């Protein structure tokens, strides 16, 4: 009877081990790169989504204000009521660009729960590359009451206005007791470039106040 043949156990050579390690390292680097790209893409998507939500919110706030702009005289800091129903100019409201101030209606006060009416004076300005909305509790405010300032959108470099008069667009408005037919608002933003919104207004003219009477 022949003796059994002995089989010698065969291990891995050094080259095979190094090759396996190299393949594993390559796969690990590829997987890590894919994972990193997924995380980066997710962050970019979230950033774009948040920026879009901010833009939509900004336009919603502005639309609500400008579309309900009304012809009404108002007082600033307790001074006499001006004949200008709409103010906009460079440095107005300490804006680093143009600023604007006007009265709007439709400020909802359900069942008159708050000590105010439905008419409010608002303004917009640029401060530190941020679009800010300013709200006064009453159209005829006093110097002792500070307005509420709300940052609306960051990354806004400039804001400018033009109004439609009787014939054409103009960059100033000094017609007493009269509202323009429309207003054009231009925002210069870091992310979206130049954004333009046009709002149709009443074009209403108020009667001149009676001498000795109240406006």
UniProtKB/TrEMBL annotation:
Spans through the membrane: 12-31
UniProt keyword annotations, A-Z: Cell inner membrane, Cell membrane, Membrane, Methylation, Transmembrane, Transmembrane helix
Pfam families, sorted: N_methyl, T2SSJ
Compartments where found: Cell inner membrane
GO biological process: protein secretion by the type II secretion system
Membrane topology annotation: Single-pass membrane protein
GO cellular component: plasma membrane; type II protein secretion system complex
InterPro entries membership: N_methyl_site, Pilin-like, T2SS_protein-GspJ, T2SS_protein_J
Assigned protein family: Belongs to the GSP J family.
Protein name: Type II secretion system protein J
Organism of provenance: Enterovibrio norvegicus FF-454
UniProt lineage: Bacteria, Pseudomonadati, Pseudomonadota, Gammaproteobacteria, Vibrionales
